[in-house]
Specification:
ATG22/LtaA_families; transmembrane; disordered C terminus; MFS transporter; 2 domains; MFS_trans_sf; Growth Hormone, Chain: A; mainly alpha
């Protein structure tokens, strides 16, 4: 990490504080990679719920569980962020929700390979999803405490890159140590899914260990001035609606950005959700090679995020997001017409090159727009708006797949959502103060 990441002033921090902040991303990637995406969720549906009686299969129950969790996140996130802002307890908020995520993830070790344990797995997975997203709200708000206007793009990109690389490292360790062959290199027993359950326990410990430096090193901000003691839950929602009306009157383009980012972030999520499936069913990638492609894609995304972070600081986040969305749309259109593993590797990796920059600069866009002391509230709204349209890409993928009778056609749904996000973002005014503050810094 270059010395260019350190600074002082609003959100100034030492390089050590930035590194500690980034390690939370490194650790949290364990949850996403091992618990939600590649390992435990697959075990839950393909093994634990394989013999589930009744007309509703395990995949559907998993969808219902994550959907219900998403609804609760949408309702809770803005208030959690606002209360942490008001009380000057962002770091404490991250600590509490991170601890609950770790506890819920560790509890998955109890989920044996028997459909009677499916309810426990779904409950813990849903709860850990809620806790993780709520931790992310205040964690994202801490971005302004570990950066300056001149370095915020690079710092945000550094965090995203740490997350990508952390996910790669732990995924490889878990696969080699516990999963490959019969119990991995460590020969962990596989009866009742014990090796997968141990992997979940390791992921929980990984998150805990790498989250600790941030809590020890990054300072807490004082409470917001001019605010009384945080109101109760009902009062918090009243204050939220009041602040939303005031935000729209004073900064309508911030509200417009929340809507636009909800669209293109849903498209980005769909790339991860359906990418592996399409790789196998459309382009003939071997099931064993999907993990290798996933690792390569994470490396490329991390490199893209790091490179774009400097561009973000020079020309602003909107240019990075627009360029990234255009790049993904070009790659996606090409993928609609090519076939075979080689073409998928070339243009699939080209597409993922732009995913990291879009994610990182979306975070810096909102952080630059946020009034000082209200970052947590805005990132809570960021989580809420993202959840509000999270059904869109999956629904369109299913619709186009059905209408055209082709898995390839499902890609059109993702491209339409990305395109809609680009169109919605186009008229949004970028943070007016960003360039000036960058020069001053």
């Amino acid at each position: 990490m270059s010395s260019g990441l350190s600074g002082s002033g609003r959100g100034g921090a030492t390089r050590g504080q930035i590194l500690a902040w980034g390690f939370w991303d490194w650790g949290s990637s364990a949850y996403n990679a091992v618990i939600l995406t590649f390992v435990f969720s697959v075990y839950l549906t393909d093994s634990v719920g394989a013999d589930l009686p009744g007309s509703v299969d395990a995949n559907s129950w998993l969808g219902y569980s994550i959907g219900a969790a998403g609804l609760l996140i949408a309702l809770m996130a803005p208030v959690v962020g606002s209360r942490a802002d008001n009380a000057g307890r962002r770091k404490l908020s991250v600590a509490i929700w991170t601890g609950l995520t770790v506890v819920a993830a560790a509890g998955l070790v109890l989920v044996q390979d028997d459909y009677h344990y499916l309810w426990l797995g779904l409950l813990l997975l849903g709860l850990s999803s809620i806790f993780f997203e709520l931790a992310s709200v205040s964690y994202n708000a801490l971005l302004t405490q570990v950066s300056t206007p001149a370095t915020i793009g690079r710092v945000s990109a550094f965090g995203w890159a740490m997350g990508y690389f952390g996910g790669i490292v732990l995924l490889l360790l878990v696969y080699v140590g516990f999963i490959s062959g019969d119990g991995g290199a460590l020969g962990v027993p596989t009866e009742n899914g014990f090796n997968i359950r141990v992997a979940a326990l390791v992921a929980a410990g990984w998150f805990l260990v790498f989250a600790l430096p941030m809590f020890l090193v990054v300072p807490e901000l004082p409470p917001r001035s001019g605010r009384r003691k945080a109101p109760g839950i009902v009062g918090s929602y009243r204050a939220l609606f009041h602040d939303l009306r005031a935000l729209y009157r004073s900064s309508p383009h911030t509200v417009y950005f929340l809507g636009a980012s909800a669209l293109f972030r849903d498209g980005l999520a769909a790339i991860f959700t359906f990418g592996a499936v399409l790789a196998v069913t459309v382009y003939g990638i071997g099931a064993g090679d999907v993990l290798i492609f996933g690792i390569a894609a994470n490396v490329v995304s991390a490199i893209g995020a790091l490179a774009a972070g400097r561009i973000d600081d020079r020309v602003g986040p909107k240019a990075v997001i627009v360029g990234s969305l255009v790049g993904m749309l070009v790659a996606g259109v090409i993928l609609l017409f090519v076939s075979g593993p080689t073409m998928f590797w070339i243009f699939g990796l080209f597409l993922t090159l732009f995913v990291g920059p879009a994610q990182s600069s979306s975070r810096t866009f909102l952080a630059r727009l946020a009034p000082a002391g209200q970052e947590g509230e805005l990132f809570g709204l960021y989580a809420t708006t993202g959840r509000a349209v999270s059904f869109l890409s999956p629904t369109l993928v299913g619709l186009f797949t059905y209408l055209f009778g082709s898995d390839r056609a499902g890609m059109l749904g993702i491209l339409l959502v990305l395109g809609a996000g680009l169109l919605a973002l186009w008229p949004v005014r970028p943070p007016a103060h960003a360039a000036a503050e960058t020069v001053e810094a």
